[in-house]
């Protein structure tokens, strides 16, 4: 199976409601509050060290029985800048994609450079939805497992 290293759009930032242990690297987040500053249509977004997907993407990923990730609720808000720059954009519901798999083995994993790695089948689910038009995507080198 092919794997891809994906660097999703940073569409916002972790906000004040986030609970995070920064004494370790990468930080461990136990509660996520993500504030969007803009949204360009991607079904997967990030702000280190967290990832979010749309509810629709979650349903699609669960339907294929993905490995290496679970889902959790996240508090999602929109910044004042979002309202000013994209007043007519309606943000779909997003959930936290909690990645805990091995890169190049599970459908989702984090490589040595702390980038997201996903299987081709997981990528295909996201690509069939709104896709990842703003993400940087390259083939994952199996030697980096």
Morphology: globular
Radius of gyration: 15 Å
Q: Percent of residues in helical segments?
A: 10-25%
Strand ordering within the main sheet: 2-7-8-11-9
Biggest sheet overview: 5 strands, mixed
Number of helices, where a helix is a run of at least 4 consecutive DSSP H or I residues: 3
Number of domains: 1
Describe this structure as you would to a colleague.
- With 145 residues, the chain is α+β, with helices and mostly antiparallel strands.
- It has one domain.
- Helix content is 17%, strand content 38%.
- It has three helices and 14 strands.
- The strands form four sheets. It has a five-stranded mixed sheet with strand order 2-7-8-11-9. A four-stranded antiparallel sheet has the order 12-13-1-14. A three-stranded mixed sheet has the order 3-6-10.
- A hairpin with a 5-residue loop joins strand 12 and strand 13.
- The longest helix has 9 residues.
- The chain is globular, with a radius of gyration of 15 Å.
- The mean pLDDT is 95.
Secondary structure: elements and pairs:
Blueprint: E1 3-7, E2 9-10, E3 12-14, E4 19-21, E5 28-31, E6 33-36, E7 44-47, E8 50-54, H1 55-63, E9 69-72, E10 75-78, H2 80-85, E11 94-99, E12 108-110, E13 116-119, H3 120-128, E14 136-139
Parallel strand pairs: 2-7, 6-10
Antiparallel strand pairs: 1-13, 1-14, 3-6, 4-5, 7-8, 8-11, 9-11, 12-13
